Every structure is written in C-alpha cells, then in structure tokens.
Amino acid sequence: MSNPVVTRFAPSPTGFLHIGGARTALFNWLYARGRGGKFLLRIEDTDRERSTPEATAAILQGMEWLGLDHDGDVISQFDGAARHAQVAHQLLGERKAYKCFATQDEIAAFRDQAKSEGKSTLYRSPWRDAETASHPDSPYVIRIKAPQSGVTIINDQVQGDVTIRNEQLDDMILLRSDGTPVYMLAVVVDDHDMGVTHVIRGDDHLNNAARQMTIYQAMGWDVPVWAHIPLIHGPDGKKLSKRHGALGAQEYQAMGYAAAGMRNYLARLGWSHGDDEFFSDAQALDWFDLDGIGKSPARFDTKKLENLSGQHIAASDDAALRHEIQAYLVSAQQPSLTDAQLENLEKAMYCLKERSRTFPDLLEKAQFALVSRPIQPDQKAAKALATVSDGILSELTPQLQNVSWSRDDLETLLNSFAEAHDTKFGKLAGPLRAALAGRAVTPSVFDMMLILGRDETMARLTDAAG
RNA sequence: GGCCCGUUCGUCUAUCGGUUAGGACGCCAGGUUUUCAACCUGGAAAGACGAGUUCGAUUCUCGUACGGGCUGCCA
After folding, report:
1. Residue A237, pLDDT score
2. How far is CA A101 from CA A109, A139, A143, A172, A266, in A?
3. Across A108-185, where does the E strand assignment appear?
4. Which residues make Cβ contacts (< 8 Å) with residue A314, sequence separation at least 6?
5. Which single residue has its CA nearest the C1' atom of nucleotide B70?
6. Exposed e or buried b per residue across A132-162, where buried means at least 16 C-beta atoms within 10 angstroms of its C-beta
7. Cα–Cα distance measured from residue A152 to residue A350, given in angstroms and rounded to the nearest whole number
C-alpha cells in the first residue's frame, strides 16, 4: 500500500458511451475508489477528424448517470500535443527514434504485395539506420526503434504473462508527418505524466501494450500495472460495437433502468466475488479486485439487468427514487410530474418499488396515484369492470362511508361484503382495481384505498358504477 | 496470412487436482395471493473435441475445432 492507486478511463469521443466503455469506466472507478486512489478521465481526442464535442458531452452524461465521478478536470489528450511531440523529439535526439520518409503510398503498396504473397505485412522502414546526410528534404514521420529480437512480456493481472516476440513488433509511428502525435505515443506519455499506476482497459489493447512498453522503456519510465479485460459481446456472441446493436449508456437511462442496478449488472459482467449477485456500491467497492476478473468475453443480457434494476429499486429509499425518476423522465423526454403527482407518488412509493423493475414499469403501476378523475380505464381494466354488475359497486360504496379507514377494517369490510354476495373477495378485486386505477396491474387494492383516501376512493367507485 | 487471447447449464458465473460440478437470470411446473404484479417451493439445464501428465482431471500440458482481438500517418 505504498503508492496510491491512480486509474483512468480514456474514451475516444467518436460516439456515445457504449456499454463496454461504461464497464471499463466502472472497473477503473471501483478499483481506484475502493482503495482510496484517484480516478481520472481523459478524452482521447487526438483524431481531429472523428472527435466531436457532442460525443464528449454524451460520454460525460453517461458517466454522470452511472455516478462515476472522476478526480480533477477532464483532460483533453489533444491539449498535450506539444508535450507528446517533445517526447518524440527527445527520443529522436537520443537515436531511439528516427525520421522515416516513406510515403503512405509506398507503405500501402508494400502491404498489398505482402498480403497477396501471404507474407507478413509488418513494415520495415529502410530509414531506420539511414545516415542523416541521406535524408531528403521532404515530409517525414518519426518512428520509434522497436527491439527486433528477444521478447516482451506483458505481465497482465487478468491475462497472465503474455509473451510477444519482438520480431513481431514494428517501428510504430510516434509523430505524423504533420507533426501531430499518434495515439500510441500520447497514451504512454499521458499515462506517465498523470501518474497512472494501473491501466485497466479492453483486451483489444492487449497487443498494443507490448508496443507501448517499448516507449516506456525507451524513456526509462516505469511500466504501469496492466489489466486487459475481455470485451462484451452482443446477444449473438458477436463483438458489441456501435454499428452492431450496441446502445449508449444514456439509452439505458431512457429505458428506465436504475443506475445502481446498471452498476451492479455491469460489475457482475466479467467480474465475480464468489456467488454474490446482488450487492450495493459499498460492497462492490469493498470487494472489487483485479483477480476476480474473468478472461472470457461476456454477453449482454437485458433480462438480468432488468432483474437487478428491480432489486435495486426495491432497496432504494423513496426520496432517492423520486429524484431518479425525475431524471429518467427528462432523459426519456417525457413530461415531468406536477408537485401534486410527485407527492402522491412518494406516498405510494412503499408499495410500488418492490414490484417494479424499471421506472416506466413503476410509473405504469403508479397510474392510480397520478391520474385524476374522470379515469379512463384501459382495455384490460374496462374488461374487468364489465365482469361485475354496476349494482355491486354502487351497493359497496356507501358502506365505505363509515368504516374506519385502516387496512384491517377495510379488509374485514370487503371480505364480509363479498361473503354476503356469495362470492370471494378475489372476484371483487379485479373490478375494484379497475375502478380505482383504470389499470389491471396495480398495487394492492387496500394500499390504493389507503393512499387515495376515503373521498377519492368513493368518488372513483361512484364514477365507475356509472 | 501472421501474432495474441478465449471456450463450465440458453445467459452471467463459482470451483484455484478428489464436489451428487454450486449460485443467479431466464425457462417450466406447483403454491400463496387481492384471477395482475410481487412472493415461495420444486424441476429441466453445463465442463467444445482428442491426446498426455497423474492414483485421480472441469482444473495442469499439447493438439484440433470454434469464437474474439490486433496487424493504420484510428483510438
């Protein structure tokens, strides 16, 4: 516990925050926060063509929804371009890097031919050992001199020791011909400068780690702890990507999943702590560790997300739920609730939260508390109402006038009323529910009566009896 | 093509050589209930394949198959 942990999430702003990125962010957040370390956010926007401020905003919003707060300012990788270039030039000066004058056309032609001959497409620049005197006066890129023999071992906390033979490594480009840094350089410099101690990222970067290590070594910097986590696949097992049905984090918010449920689900995807399935943030923070991360890719399962979301809704306190529902409404572009509706919702929350999996689900069951008379029954409710004669409802209503408005007394009254009509309360419940809520799926009839109060209950029953 | 990684119920996973291979979601069947929802109980359901190491392999090694990733003056 000598050095404090510093992790980072480094998305490129070329689209929304998709679910795989969200999980990577969560793992980094969990690891740092669970150990009193720092969690940094860096936007990898060195690709000016594809980076957009909208994408950055979407990523930030997604993280905010998930409650993944970062330390310090959001860092723009592009802002560090001068420093990245400086490192490249330092390496150049130390002859650990060189100017390569090969044109993109030349390289492309080489690759095409290598491919057609079935040979390695690894490009070997002829300029690696060229004399400075022979340099033409034309644009060049700066490439690093990668080791060409021996091996590089990536000591990965998830993948184990991964050995790459150095002959597989190419002299990657550090600085483009326009002088701008390339990602491979920028990540290393930034991670080093930011003091990142643990790099937790998708395993699509596993091979890159070996190449990045050559930069660390050339600069004489300490290599961070690597943890390459397996990617998340779609329901069909294919890679989850923006063009392959992947949804942004915000879309899950708009679908009404509880953020805590999403965190729990995502944490459980690819990571485990024994048989624990449902857990709080505090527990996740306490338990999360790199050795609990699995090595095989996982598929995204909406059903389980739904289940976990429901469990977290049931476990949340009412005020927090109210706030999250309001945020959900905004994100789903639904009209917001009035103060009166909010008040009723909160009164009803105790019997709504344990039966709802998502917020739209909860709101649907809360209809009885949100609508005002006259109530328009939906199809199923209308059908339920049709099964009972209006006479019964109008006979029941006056009896509610003097009963004490408590659950026990209402139960006693309704049961004996049913008995008097030679039926069971169960037969009455459907129509009653329909009259009170205009819906077929609602909380208990008694809960609704208690929440609505005597006057409103009687009025609704009278309305329904026509 | 080359290199790297992976493979336990439909899905997420536990197991760190010896288990009736456990849990969760989903599914099916019952139950309870205010014919919904929620809840409870039970059930079906897995070690890709082939060798090897070992007294003993899901667990270790190798091969095959399948899946994934990387192979850019993208990140």
Report:
1. 66
2. 15, 6, 10, 14, 46
3. 141-144, 151-156, 160-165, 173-175
4. A353, A354, A356
5. A207
6. eeeeeeeebbbbbbbeeeeebebebbbbeeb
7. 58
Residues A284-342 have pLDDT tens digits of 999 999 999 999 999 999 999 999 999 999 999 999 999 999 999 999 999 999 999 99
Q: Which amino acid is at A188?
A: V
CA–C1' gap, A165 and B51, in angstroms: 28
CA distances in angstroms from A205 to A59, A200, A211, A277, listed in the order given: 20, 10, 10, 29
Other beta carbons within 10 Å of A287: 17
Q: Is the pLDDT of residue A204 over 60?
A: yes
Task: Kindly report the bases of strand B lying within 7 A of a protein C-beta atom.
Answer: 1-8, 10-15, 22-26, 33-39, 67-75
Q: What is the 3-state secondary structure (H, E, C) of A232-259?
A: EECCCCCECCCCCCCCEHHHHHHCCCCH
The full length of chain A comes to 466
Question: What's the whole-number mean pLDDT along residues A248-272?
Answer: 95
Give the per-residue pLDDT at A437: 93
Nearest protein residue to B38's C1' (by CA)? A355
Rounded to the nearest 10 degrees, the angle between the axes of helix A445-452 and helix A454-465 is 120
What is the mean pLDDT of the segment spanning A422-451?
89
Task: Label residue A119 by pLDDT band (50, 70, 90).
Answer: confident
Structure confidence at residue A246 as a pLDDT band (50, 70, 90): low
Indicate the pTM of the whole model. 0.94
Residue that has been written with the tokens 């408590």 in this structure: A406
Coil, strand or helix: which one is A201? strand
- Closest Cα to residue A165, out of A104, A215, A117, A210? A210
Contact A88, A142 (CB under 8 A): yes
Distance A296 CA to B64 C1' (A): 20
Q: Give the per-residue pLDDT at A47.
A: 86
Taking the C-alpha atoms of residue A253 and residue A331, their distance in angstroms, rounded to an integer, is: 7
Name, in order, each residue with C-beta under 8 angstroms of A245's C-beta and a sequence gap of 6 or more: A234
Give the span between the Cα atoms of A154 and A157, in whole angstroms. 9
Q: Looking at A203-320, which runs of residues are DSSP E strands?
A: 225-229, 232-233, 298-299
pLDDT category at A99 given cuts 50, 70, 90 is very high
3-state secondary structure of A162: strand
For residue A75, what are the β-bridge partners?
A42
Helix (H) / strand (E) element for A435: namely: helix A425-437
Catalytic residues of A: 242
